[in-house]
Write a structure and sequence with these properties.
By secondary structure, this protein is an alpha+beta fold. The protein has 2 domains: 171 residues, no CATH class; 124 residues, Cyclophilin (Beta Barrel). The protein has 6 helices and 22 strands. The strands form 5 sheets. A 7-stranded mixed β-barrel has the order 13-20-17-18-15-14-21. Strand 17 and strand 18 form a beta hairpin. The N and C termini lie far apart (56 Å). The N terminus and C terminus are likely disordered. It comes from Rhodoplanes elegans. InterPro entries: CT_A_B, Cyclophilin-like_dom_sf, PxpC. Keywords: ATP-binding, Hydrolase, Nucleotide-binding. This is Carboxyltransferase domain-containing protein.
């Protein structure tokens, strides 16, 4: 006897506009700018690993930059349109993006960083990612997923947010907020790179006094490798061990994004979007907020080095990144011609809330 539908998963039937999952990819979840303001209750922030790529995909689709989109890791999904039409845009790691007709044949390939409109019955297929392990698929109007504590981000460990707190599975039906894509020409974002980090800037502390001078020198002068034991919660690194000064246990305290814990084995762990809210290992340094998007693009096997900067440099870098994201709007160009990009976008306030989007990221 066959098993019935999983009661934990969202309903898979209905007449409302949606994208149906044909193939989910290994780790596709709904993410936005994160669940800000609830860490004191033990609830992680979550949100996009690469907020720059999230903003790019949303601006191409015609959304505010922090709108919830599908975060895709390693390999993209295949989705069937169950709506009159939908406009989508993908940004992040390099991937082949194809539109298939109702027979499964390739109707067209979508150029990188270009929006496209699909109609009922067509399929969108996103291939394997390279250059960055994450990418974002935004849809015009966003997904019709419920807010949980002010966010649509998915926390898999807590089964919270997104689509019932779960990664996508074949057969899932993803509700769309808009029944049809608005009429407009497509947009392209030229000269934009989502390169992974090779050198990451850090501010020492808050517990750098728990490490020997030799340990700090090792941390700042050696190369580390991203291990396969890396996920949205933390990036485990392998390389030279870092010597503690006086043990490796502290009274648990709050965890900022990018905090670098060093447990008893002396190997650093960079804490990421789904990090725990408190931790009891000393933190040798914190990745500056401006470098977190590029850090989140690293694949297992990649190498990384850390560079010490002061707080003023961290703040300046953050301001530069925020300004660069805001300037994306002005760099959008017509993909097919015939649209006054500047006039249309100025009428939309697409970049409102950009500072709030980074509010949870300490320097």
């Amino acid at each position: 006897m066959s098993a019935g539908p999983d009661p934990a998963r969202p309903a898979t039937t209905g007449d409302s506009p949606a994208l149906r999952v044909v193939a989910p990819g290994p780790a596709t979840t709904l993410q936005d700018a994160g669940r800000v303001g609830h860490q004191r209750f033990g609830i992680p922030v979550s949100g996009a690993m690469d907020r720059v790529a999230l903003a790019a995909a949303n601006l191409l689709a015609g959304n505010p930059p922090e709108t919830a989109a599908l975060e895709i890791a390693y390999l993209g999904p295949t989705l069937t349109v169950e709506a009159e039409s939908v406009r989508v845009a993908f940004a992040g790691g390099h991937a082949t993006v194809e539109v298939l007709d109702e027979n499964g044949d390739i109707a067209r390939k979508v150029p990188p960083l270009t929006s496209t409109r699909l109609v009922r019955g067509e399929r969108l297929r996103i291939g394997g990612l390279s250059g960055s392990v994450v990418g974002y698929l935004a849809v015009a109007g966003g997904f019709d997923a419920p807010l949980f504590l002010g966010s649509r981000s998915t926390l898999l460990r807590g089964a919270l947010g997104g689509f019932a707190g779960l990664a996508l599975a074949a057969g899932d039906r993803l509700p769309l907020a808009a029944a049809a894509a608005p009429e407009r020409d497509e947009l392209h974002l030229p000269d934009t790179s989502f390169a992974a980090a090779e050198r990451v800037r850090v501010v020492l502390g808050p517990q750098d006094d728990h490490f020997t001078d030799e340990g700090i020198t090792t941390f700042l002068n050696q190369t580390y490798k991203v291990t396969a034991a890396t996920d949205r919660m933390g990036m485990r690194l392998d390389g030279p061990t870092i010597a503690h000064h006086d043990g490796f246990n502290i009274v648990s305290d709050g965890i900022a994004p990018g905090a670098i814990q060093v447990p008893g084995n002396g190997l650093p762990i960079v804490l990421l979007a789904d990090r725990q809210t408190t931790g009891g290992y000393p933190k040798i340094a914190t990745v500056i907020s401006a470098d977190l998007p590029a850090l989140g693009r690293l694949a297992p096997g990649a190498t990384i080095r850390f560079e010490r900067v002061d707080l003023d440099a961290a703040v300046a870098a953050r301001r530069t990144l925020v300004a660069e994201i805001a300037a994306m709007r002005d760099r959008l160009v017509p993909a097919g011609g015939g649209v006054d990009v500047e006039a249309r976008l100025l009428a939309e306030n697409l970049v409102g809330g950009m500072i709030d989007m980074f509010a949870e990221h300490a320097p």
